[in-house]
Amino acid sequence: MDVYTSKQVQAVNGTDVRLKCTFSSSSPLGLDVTVSWTFRPLAGGSEESVFYYHRNPFPPTEGRFLGRAVWDGNIQRSDGSIIIRNIQESYNGTYLCQVKNPPDVHGENGRNFSQSG
């Protein structure tokens, strides 16, 4: 499994930003493809779930991304991208995109570094 993301994304406070995550798999894409987005704050602190996809999009049910993280991908086109609406300075950090397509579940995570200002 290979996952590709933009290395660095910059956004203006209050705007929407698309975090791109595309992938390629050695196995045909099946129904069990999962996409997990997590966030590591630049200022430190614990890792936080941003978004999860498995057959359907599952936006966050709590935390800073509640009501702000939106699915913008298309699994059949090998796209696991999301949009973060109304970006804030507290969203500066590293966003990790992990894709699994059983039995092809090994590989690198894609990383986006986001900075707003």
TrEMBL record:
Residues 1-114 form the Ig-like domain. The keyword NADP does not apply. It comes from the Eukaryota. It is a single-pass type I membrane protein. It is found in: Membrane. Pfam families: V-set. Keywords: Disulfide bond, Glycoprotein, Immunoglobulin domain, Membrane, Signal, Transmembrane, Transmembrane helix. PROSITE patterns: IG_LIKE. This is Ig-like domain-containing protein.
